[in-house]
Amino acid sequence: MSRIVNWGILGLGNIAYEFAKSFYNTNNSKLIAVASRSNDKLNIFKKEFNISNEYLFTDYEKLINNKDVDVVYIALPNTLHYQWILKILDAKKNIFVEKPSFIKFDECKIVFEHKNFKEIFFGEGFMYRYHPQLLKVTEIIRNKEIGNIVSMKSDFGKNLIYKKNFFGFLKKKIDKKKRYFNKQLGGGVIFDQGCYPLSMSIFIASLIENINYENFVIKGIEKDYEFGDLDIQSSINIIFDKRFTSHISTSFKNDFGNKTILSGDKGEIVIKNSWNPDVGEIEVLSNNKKKYNFKNTKSIYSLEIEHTSNDILNNKKEASFPGINKKEIFINSKLMNEWVNEK
Q: Which residues lie closer than 8 Å to 41 by C-beta, 6 or more apart?
């Protein structure tokens, strides 16, 4: 492999477009191939991202097996991840899959036991992990500026369902064909938004010295449903190794915001916008109050792509820090499965 990693994308929806836009200012990555069932989408990507005709595919397997593609990014609906992960594993090709990687823990276990799994890079698309503010949070925690971390409260909520008028709140016209409102496509607020604070919980737990964050207890799950079995709001408490408690709230009907508060025995860290900030801002509330602001010179998708490509160039089989490694993906999948299936 050269010092440039060639990427291919399966599925050309909105997230694939955002991802593709972010290759322009990476120095070790190139988008060379795309696959979609839609010729219209293929033509858009061809023109927008200068994709050669030989790398435009309506057959996903032809992209997967193309010798010039080093890593395949799966941007398909959640319910399709598993079957295409298996096909890419069979081809012994590197995989980067949009979150959540799995909607069933049994599928996660099968993938992790696949004969080729240890031989290829496998990563998951939590782009917030690459924002500079999270590196600063890590430094503050490791330096014990707020003492020992004991708890976390993290929210991800935005109102997608109700609108306000003169008479009060009314339901918006909902397109149930959209992935996040369609259970058959792996929709629901837990898969779409709850996976972010869930993965943050595991990340923070992993920073605590001598903790076994695989040892967890779930308590206090609450859920609201709409359109039958679609979860539109939920909260959960997770206790890791009897030492660290995370409280998560996520919603499609309330604007909870994106704040995360990390509490230690000597202070707090407040992350104002945890998931996709244009400008990052954190506050440290302890004996010496501090505030940090971060303005990216690159999008966090660019940082994610560049970091992943660097790992592949260095023959790593999972994301290096601060990316989500294979162990964290496994635990995240297990936790999410229990959260989603708890009635």
A: 12
Domain that holds residue 95: 5-126
Cα–Cα distance measured from residue 280 to residue 291, given in angstroms and rounded to the nearest whole number: 11
| CA 131 to chain CA mean position, Å | 13
> What residue type is 63 in one-letter code?
L
- 324 is a domain residue: no
pLDDT digits (tens, 9 = 90+) for 293-319: 987 778 899 999 999 999 999 999 999
- What string of DSSP letters covers 287-339? SS-EEEEEE-SS-HHHHHHHHHHHHHHTT-SSPPTTS--HHHHHHHHHHHHHH
* Predicted model pTM: 0.93
d(CA 201, CA 252): 20
Q: What order of strands is seen across the sheet that includes strand 56-57?
A: 56-57, 29-35, 5-10, 71-74, 94-98, 122-125
Residue 48 falls inside a structural domain: yes
